[in-house]
Design a protein that fits this description.
Blueprint lengths: L3 E4 L2 E4 L5 H7 L23 E4 L6 E2 L10 E3 L3 H15 L15 H8 L23 E3 L9 H10 L4 E4 L6 E4 L15 H5 L5 E3 L12 E5 L8 E7 L2 E7 L12 H5 L14 E4 L2 E4 L2 H19 L4 E5 L5 H15 L4 E3 H17 L9 H5 L2 E5 L3 H4 L1 H12 L3 E5 L12 E3 L6 H14 L5 H7 E2 L1 H8 L13 H11 L5 E4 L1 H4 L4 H14 L9 E4 L6 H6 L6 E2 L3 E2 L3 H10 L12 H10 L4 E5 L3 H4 L3 H9 L3 E6 L11 E4 L8 E4 L4 E5 L12 H11 L9 H11 L1 H4 L12 E2 L23 E2 L18 E6 L16 H4 L5 E3 L1 H7 L6 E5 L4 E8 L7 E5 L27 E7 L3
Parallel strand pairs: 1-5, 15-16, 15-25, 17-18, 17-21, 18-19, 20-31, 21-22, 25-26, 26-27, 32-36, 33-35
Antiparallel strand pairs: 1-2, 3-4, 3-5, 6-9, 7-8, 10-11, 11-12, 13-14, 13-27, 23-24, 28-29, 29-30, 32-37, 33-36, 34-35, 34-37
Length: 889
């Protein structure tokens, strides 16, 4: 028998895939209705039938494996007649006139036209159902539905939500949406994957209610919401953004998107957008030209530096902005002004993670990649809620688990992924170190560790073992039942695991120790540096990783180079013409303290609403008011910009060129898809203009030129990266030379620090535990519908999905206080109070409450206190002792 098969006379190789897959690879078009790329074969529509020599009956190409020796015909008169009959039967299921042959219509209507299907002008019609419009984004027209099950399979196999069902039989068969046939009442996350794949247009969205103009330009770029870094394809028209789809070729999201990435783009044309620079004198605020704004700012920076010294000035780079903007702001303050007072929210929120990973492995970034999710034997999810905060990664984790991967969830709340976990370790908020010590001790006791890996690659095992085995921590210290710990050890002892973690570890007074404790588990199980395993911290904002990489930190230069590194200093002299100061600058929190005391005089803030996002809201506001100079670059007015002396209108991620770096260290091109409104400018360009107005003489005409300087400044990470090499799927650093393919797995051939460091960690009491007057522990975080402080999402239809920040609490705690869902409740801590609506939820255990921070009216961070991790200086957002009091309506 021949080792090859033949499709329409073309010899093809057999590789275990279906006839349909191989045929499409070779340009042989086989029509389908119920099939969609990336889904398991449904095999229901039979439109993909092909003829196979030696078989009396045709076979379905979608699920028949191609085997050597097969001779297949895909387009014969008999097949065309069969397909015509099948398509005619499908049309009869819809309403009269709903579906008709149309070469420019939906994929199904194009098939009707191609096969000459005649739709009867008149036929008996059942009662027509209205279009379902209960959701701000999604629509369903039941008259166009042929119950092909593509949406059902897409929802289950891509997003994992199981929203759809099929009801009725025969001619009464119909699609069901959730329990009440309404998107608005269902578990739908509005990812839009079903809309993209629906062959008839029965499922559509508000971006598809009007036909896409045939001449609508298309530009590939990167999503500007969370740090996953999804590839997006942006269609534009005269009115702005008209449609966003996922890029199928992107290794990050493989065409999938969340609701924010796909639909929440209306902010781009919102009337609130800042369009011209605003200058404030006293209580008067007025528009000025960019030249006036630049000259005024340059003069003011020069004057304050001359009067009070360079350390009287500081800058906060934006993790929403590009790598190029962050690098240049750092360069401006270090090389032109002469201070290391540079920070960003990447360091504020993720510094514990970076510090811990750097100390124990040699680099503060992920060792693993998103591709490891599908390779993982076991996923350990600690202090992260990816189905809400990083939805595309959350969907990938969910699918991996549904396909057989193990899952341990470590989180006080019963997040969505806890429902499908093998075990949920619902620890007491802030008890991470104690729990990780218990797990490490039990692994050692059970001899369920990778002794060869530890001997070859790690140090500190004897010290850790001696500390743990006497029993330095007990389950009762964590709130986790013994049975759950036993089950977790069974899973962890089976080999390497992928440790996915987030701010639930880092935003604590024990943040650095928490991440080190998780790294102990990573090394004991032989996980770090191996495929399908390792450390994968999730990043909050779209360019959190990139801003840290660029040196927007007070103690590190670009590429995490120490301030006193001789090679880095030599590159500073070569590229900047000057060495930066030697001593570390102020962190964001210390900047606020310095402003409060009057020692900090001027602050430049890129894209951060500090009043809303920093702890101790009122204290932050008061500190900012004391500044002699506050400059804000942003898209919209916000609480911080209201205090600013100068507001510079910024371009958003859809409106500029540059690069972002996602959570797996992948540097990707950001492309301008549309012009910014009015006179808004990219952040990088404003920084160049100010620097040159101060006499810097920078010759950096494009973002590409800026990145070339970045690559020269930190060649160990970026030396092989240029815009020309980023045109396809980006590159993961380290990428030290132009022939390097990028690094998917860090530490594969040994830890960058030499040997991995196992660390003895002594649990310290949390200052918010055990306060009798404040019996509940507050956790702050995100919800699916919004992003960070809501600057963009609150100005889109996403606002309709979640109009406020509600306090999530357990039924037991609500009953004790006489609180019902929807009641207003006063939440008080040692540091402040706020009033928000209550929402009773089974996700939050008794003794714990949860509150998001997306809406400025909630004043969530008026509750959080001054506590910092002593090593990273990261604020403690995840544990605040509070009490509740019903508010009389």
């Amino acid at each position: 028998m021949s080792a090859k098969a033949h499709i329409d006379g073309l010899p093809v190789s057999c590789d275990g895939r279906s006839i349909l897959a191989v045929a499409r690879d070779h340009g042989c078009r086989i029509p389908t209705v119920c099939h969609a790329e990336g889904l398991a074969a449904e095999g229901g529509c039979r439109v993909c039938l092909v003829e196979l020599d030696g078989r009396d009956e045709p076979v379905a190409a979608c699920h028949t494996p191609l085997e050597p020796g097969m001779t297949i015909s895909t387009d014969t008169p008999a097949l065309r007649d069969s397909r015509r009959r099948l398509l005619s039967l499908m049309v009869e299921r819809g309403s009269a006139g709903a579906l008709r042959p149309d070469p420019n219509g939906s994929p199904f209507e194009q098939l009707l036209a191609e096969y000459g299907v005649v739709v009867p002008a008149e036929r008996e019609v059942t009662a027509e159902l209205p279009v379902e419009r209960s959701h701000p984004y999604l629509r369903f027209d039941p008259q166009r539905c042929i119950t092909c099950r593509v949406c059902l399979n897409t929802c289950e196999q891509i997003q994992g939500q199981f929203v759809y069902g099929i009801g009725g039989r025969g001619s009464s068969t119909r699609l069901l949406i959730g329990a009440h046939d309404r998107f608005g009442d269902s578990d739908c996350t509005a990812c839009g994957a079903c809309v993209v794949r629906c062959p008839t247009g029965a499922l559509f969205d508000r971006d598809r209610e009007a036909p896409l103009p045939l001449d609508a330009p298309s530009t590939d770029s990167i999503c500007g919401y969370c740090g996953v870094g999804c590839g997006i394809r942006v269609r534009t028209g005269s009115g702005g953004i008209v449609r966003i789809d996922g890029v199928a070729e992107s290794p990050v999201n493989r065409g999938h998107l969340c609701a924010k990435g796909r639909y929440a783009h209306a902010w781009q044309g919102h009337p609130d957008r800042l369009r011209r620079p605003l200058l404030r004198e006293g209580s008067r605020r007025y528009e000025v030209s960019w030249k006036t704004a630049i000259d005024w700012l340059a003069d003011r920076l020069d004057a304050l530096r001359a009067q009070y010294g360079p350390d009287s000035l500081a800058a906060i780079a934006s993790s929403r902005s590009t790598n190029e903007a962050g690098y240049l702001l750092s360069k401006l303050f270090r090389a032109v002004i002469g201070t290391n007072n540079v920070d960003c929210c990447a360091r504020v929120c993720h510094s514990s993670t970076a510090l811990a990973l750097g100390a124990v492995t040699g680099t503060g970034a992920a060792s693993a990649s998103y591709a490891d999710i599908e390779r993982a034997r076991l996923i350990v999810l600690a202090g992260a809620n990816p189905t809400e905060a990083h939805p595309v990664v959350g969907a990938r984790i969910k699918q991996a688990v549904l396909k057989g991967a193990g899952l341990i969830v470590i989180d006080p709340r019963r997040i969505e992924l806890a429902r499908i976990a093998d075990v949920h370790l619902a620890l007491r908020p802030g008890a991470n170190v104690a729990l990780f010590n218990i797990l490490a001790a039990r692994l050692i006791e059970a001899k369920a560790i990778d002794a060869d890996y530890l001997h070859a690659r790690c140090e500190g095992f004897s010290e850790l073992s001696d500390f743990l085995l006497p029993g330095s921590a007990h389950p009762e210290d964590t709130g986790v039942p013994e049975a759950a710990i036993h089950r977790a050890i069974e899973l962890l002892g089976g080999g390497p695991a992928l440790f996915v973690h987030g701010l639930g570890l880092s935003e604590l007074v024990s943040g650095t120790a928490s991440v080190m404790g998780l790294c102990n588990l990573g090394m004991l199980t032989g996980s770090i540096g191996r495929p399908g395993a390792g450390m994968l911290p999730l990043r909050g904002q779209n360019n959190v990783q990139g801003q840290a990489d660029m040196g927007a930190m007070p103690d590190r230069l670009t590429g995490y180079q120490p301030l006193d590194d001789p090679q880095a200093l030599a590159r500073c002299e070569q590229l900047w013409g000057v060495r930066p100061p030697r001593g570390p600058g102020l962190t964001t929190t210390l900047m606020m303290r310095a402003a409060e005391s009057g020692n900090l005089k001027g602050l430049w803030v890129q894209g951060e609403d500090m009043v809303q996002s920093e702890p101790e809201e009122e204290r932050t506001r008061a500190a900012l008011k004391r500044l002699d100079l506050l400059v804000v670059q942003d898209l919209f007015p916000c609480a911080t910009s209201e205090l600013a002396h100068l507001v510079l209108p910024a371009a958003g991620y859809l409106e500029q060129e540059g690069t972002f770096t996602n959570g797996e260290r992948r540097v990707q091109r950001v492309r301008r898809t549309i012009d910014p409104p009015g006179e808004a400018r990219p952040d990088w360009l404003a920084v160049v203009d100010v620097a040159n107005a101060m006499g810097a003489g920078w010759d950096l005409p494009t973002p590409s030129a800026v990145f070339d300087e970045i690559a020269a400044f930190a060649p160990h990470l970026f030396g092989g990266i240029s815009y020309a090499r980023l045109d396809e799927s980006g590159l993961q650093w380290p990428c030290p030379d132009p022939d390097h393919r990028g690094t998917e797995t860090v530490h594969e051939n040994g830890f960058l620090r030499g040997r991995g460091r196992l660390t003895v960690l002594r649990p310290e009491p949390n200052p918010e535990h055990g306060l009798a007057d404040y019996p509940l522990l507050l956790i702050t975080g995100r919800v699916l519908q919004h992003y960070n402080v809501g600057t963009m999402t609150r100005r889109t239809p996403s606002f309709e999905l979640e109009k406020d920040d509600a306090l999530e609490l357990a039924d037991e705690d609500a009953r004790q206080q006489g609180i019902r869902s929807g009641d207003l409740v006063r939440v008080s801590s040692q540091w402040g109070e706020t009033v928000v609506p209550a929402r009773i939820s089974s996700r939050t255990p008794s003794g714990t409450v949860f509150l998001s921070f997306h809406h400025p009216e909630s004043h969530t961070n008026s509750l959080t206190g001054p506590h910092l991790d002593p090593d990273s200086r990261c604020p403690q957002y995840k544990v605040t002792a509070v009490r509740l009091e019903p508010v009389d309506s």
